[in-house]
Amino acid sequence: GAVVSQHPSRVICKSGTSVKIECRSLDFQATTMFWYRQFPKQSLMLMATSNEGSKATYEQGVEKDKFLINHASLTLSTLTVTSAHPEDSSFYICSAEAGQGARNTEAFFGQGTRLTVV
Amino acid sequence: QKEVEQNSGPLSVPEGAIASLNCTYSDRGSQSFFWYRQYSGKSPELIMSIYSNGDKEDGRFTAQLNKASQYVSLLIRDSQPSDSATYLCAVIGAGSYQLTFGKGTKLSVIP
Fold first, then answer.
1. b/e sequence B58-69, b meaning 16+ C-beta within 10 Å
2. Per-residue pLDDT tens for B43-61?
3. Of the candidates B60, B64, B63, B62, which has an alpha carbon nearest to the alpha carbon of residue B79?
4. CA A61, A88, A93, B6 torsion-angle sign
5. What pLDDT is recorded for position A102?
6. How far apart are CA A42 and CA B18, in angstroms?
7. How confident is the model at residue B31 (pLDDT cuts 50, 70, 90)?
8. Residues 6+ apart with CB under 8 A from B37
9. Cα-flanking dihedrals φ and ψ of residue B28, to 5°?
10. Do residues B90 and B50 make contact, with C-beta atoms less than 8 angstroms apart?
11. Which of B110, B109, B103, B95 is nearest to B5 (CA)?
């Protein structure tokens, strides 16, 4: 399957600081990338949809000014958690897919980033 | 609100048995269905995708889809302890390209 690389895998930061998470598609061009958040023993919750060259679409309840998404190229999307607080501590996962809305498009996930805000 | 429902489990099966995982979805127009496996602390990995009614087999895994009943299942034959994980059902709804995930079923294969 396609390879999606996410970095860093784990980060600890102080409350009030910002953290950037990178998501790269290594062997294909991803016109669309998705950012999820997963709290312990919960399912993945979609935060935002990132389309190359345009503004991200955020899900209801997700603050776009807090979770900044940049999808500047077909192989890279970044999520920046600004002014992080302990309640932002979670497992952040990106996924990427080729094509747009193709019926049989499959999403492949990055390794995930465990963010701990202290 | 598009919903994907799964029994949270845990589902315990003995090694070598068949594990049966079930999922229902609310969006009748959904076209694409996926099963992901997620080990603790790791991101999901795709196991199977299915788009048409009926069965789709891949090795020890069989996905079954019944659109009339809005039901999709995953069978794991000859279950192994390494299959112990949380299995996530995911659906792409009508007119969408976003995955909606169920909460997952935790499977435990007992040696």
1. eeebbbbbebee
2. 999 899 999 999 999 999 9
3. B60
4. negative
5. 46
6. 25
7. confident
8. B44, B45, B47, B83, B85, B86, B87, B88
9. -65, -25
10. no
11. B103
A98 pLDDT band, cuts 50/70/90, is low
Extract the tokens encoding A111. 């390794």
Could you give the CA distance from residue B57 to residue B48 in angstroms, rounded to a whole number? Answer: 9
Q: Which of B74, B76, B78 is nearest to B88 (CA)?
A: B74
3-state secondary structure labels for all residues of chain A: CCCEEEECCEEEECCCCCEEEEEEECCCCCCEEEEEEECCCCCCEEEEEEECCCCCEECCCCCCCCEEEEEEECCEEEEEECCCCHHHCEEEEEEEECCCCCCCCCCEECCCEEEEEC
Residue in A97, A100, A109 nearest the CB of B44 = A109
CB A86 within 8 A of CB A29: no
- 8 Å CB contact between A66 and B111: no
Residues 9-68 in B contacting A (C-alpha not used; CB under 8 Å): 31-32, 34, 36, 41-46, 49, 51
Q: Do B103 and A101 touch (CB under 8 A)?
A: no
Which chain B residues are within 8 Å of A107, Cβ to Cβ? 34, 46, 99
pLDDT digits (tens, 9 = 90+) for B4-15: 999 888 999 999
Residue with tokens 């299959």: B83
The CA distance from A92 to A76, in Å, is: 16
Query: A115: burial class by Cβ within 10 Å (0-12, 13-18, 19+)?
Result: buried
Q: Count of residues for chain A?
A: 118
